[in-house]
Amino acid sequence: MSRLPSLSTAAWCVSIALWLMFCGMMHDFRSVGFTQEMIDKELIERRDDLAADVNTALIERKLAFVLAAAIAAFCWISPGRNYRWHSPTGAVLIACGLSWMMASYFWSDSRPETAKELLRVGVYSALCFGLVRRFPPLELVFLLIVASLLSIAVAVFCEVYVGSSDFVDEVYRLNGSMHPNSLSRFAVYTAIPAAAFALFTNQYRLFWITLLLGSFVIIQLTACRTSLGSAVVGIVALAALHLGWKRFVMTSAVGTAFLGLLLLVIGVGGQSMARSAGDTVAMGRSESVSSLTGRLPLWNALLERAEQHPLVGYGYGAFWNSEKIASIHRQIGWYAGHSHNCYVELLVNIGAIGLLLFLAIGVFAFYRCVLLTNQTGEIVYPILGGLLAASFMNGLTEVGCVLPREHAIFSGLFLLATMRSPVNEFSIAPQTGPAESFE
Hints:
It is a single chain. This protein has helices spanning 9-26, 36-52, 59-77, 88-103, 111-134, 137-162, 180-200, 205-222, 225-243, 245-269, 271-281, 295-306, 322-332, 342-376, 380-394, 406-417; strands at residues 167-168, 171-172. The protein is mainly alpha-helical. It has a two-stranded antiparallel sheet with strand order 1-2. Strand 1 and strand 2 form a beta hairpin. Helix 5 packs across helix 16 (406-417) and helix 9 packs antiparallel against helix 10 (245-269). It starts with 8 loop residues before the first helix and ends in a 22-residue tail after the last helix.
């Protein structure tokens, strides 16, 4: 058991700045109270306008971009915490991945669109590198918890103040000022650290348990099944890293026995109980469950188009134009603005070579979490491993971690934080000592 350090003043200020950035980047206050169908239609219309003239971007999106650059500049200008990059392999992999992404400009189907996306990638990469340079890993985790909690609070306030008519299959979905899937991802980023601190530290345990339960309530209210699975996978991964494989296997055996007993009870209960259990797993949503809410036909359509440029893709950010959106709509019967799978999204944008590079980066970062957990015993590395595992899981049905948006910033921070060497002054203080400050 360990006590947790306090946040520095700089971390509080940066976390507030990140929250404001997310407000401009992810929240859509103009659409509060709209149904998701109305929002999706408006987003497609905005995409066409933005493709024609970048100046048509919403003012809050522009301010968020400027704020991201300002935060990055602050982190690079202010004194770092003895920053040392101790992973040459990770550096090479990341350099190769970013270089391949940048090089896709030269074969892009739409160079202006690729250039805009690469500009975002450049600024957000500078932000991620700067944050990792400026703050130690554990402080980064707290910083992101604060920014995520404030983002959730804003969305919930908008929902309570305005109300929502957003129902899918007669199931209510909490959205407030952002898409339910985005809102639930913020809850995942608070649930996983909260689980770690509730289970493996002895300070503010009641608070962390409350935060953990509250995060799952938000996920339940958004009815986002991907985020629920991501949170569970992330918590299992951090437990496996922290406990070690022997203790984890024993714990998993008990959990498997309990699950088997539960399935036996459901089987004995008959079809009605089995149906109720299925509805619970599907979070009450029954629309196109067999096709993963229409994703399977979409992926088939995208894989057909990926065959035209299998190795290099269409260029980063260049695939989704009005023509392809309309073509895919005619084939699958609904409008898609992205692949709903980060691995397929990478494949169509930067090809099989780019996909393999970014898979290698992710796997190596998780390996670093295992290595650093064994070397240091610090709780922050199992947390980072759990967050990375959640990102891998989320990527099966969402694309946020590979687009220059909020989820990619989080994923980039998780990856980069595993590449720096642990420094003793950032370690958690022992239980018998006073709480350590980052100042």
